[in-house]
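The records we work with from here on pair a chain with its fold. These numbers are not coordinates but entries in a learned vocabulary of local backbone shapes. To see the layout at work, look at the sequence and tokens printed below.

. . .
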Amino acid sequence: MNNNSVLLVEDDPGIGRFVTRGLAAEGFSVQWLRGISGVPRQLTGADYAVLILDLMLPDGDGCSLARYLRESGEMIPILMLTARDSLDEKLDGFRNGADDYLTKPFAFDELLARVKVLARRGSAGPERSHLQVADLSIDVRAREVSCNGQLISLTRREFDLLLYLARNAGEVVSRERLLAGAWGNNNELSTNTVDVYLGYLRRKLKAHGSETEIATVRGIGCRIGLAPDSGTAAP
């Protein structure tokens, strides 16, 4: 189902009007709340595509709300909107249930692009038991990866990293998102660890003759897909 409804939780009137008018001009229907107290009730029985959630609100903390929603089984994609831009604060947002993170001030075009990506992801339905990315077949339940019928032996962390990339195939994913999304609340790991395991994955895929590429997008993150010179269309 095509759902273009967005729930915005933002106490700054200027930002609230800016986001509401901009998204409305792009065909989205926006419900704007100034605090977190009414969010659970607003989500009950509603079908929003995306929740845009400010981190600091007059009646509570956005991270606490995101964690509460996830613990309650609410799976709406969450875009956290905040002036906090340190790595630790970003990771805290992801670990508490955010799907994406945009710092203020921001360009509306970037907000729009992120909302569209999250809306598409939310409309994809329940998690599939099998994923196909280029020539890789991923059995989510069995935690197995194969290339052209040949199994690729991966460690737990390698598999989790590859699975997170596959779930976001075609999208540039930051190292912070990979760290939190693939491995969760593990304070012993860092974005440098992500780079190390990306190197492991690349070498194993190459050793098995895979044409799947984990490409680095300088200054942003990485993206999984078919290598551009493979001559084969991605599925």
Notes: The first helix runs from residue 13 to 25.
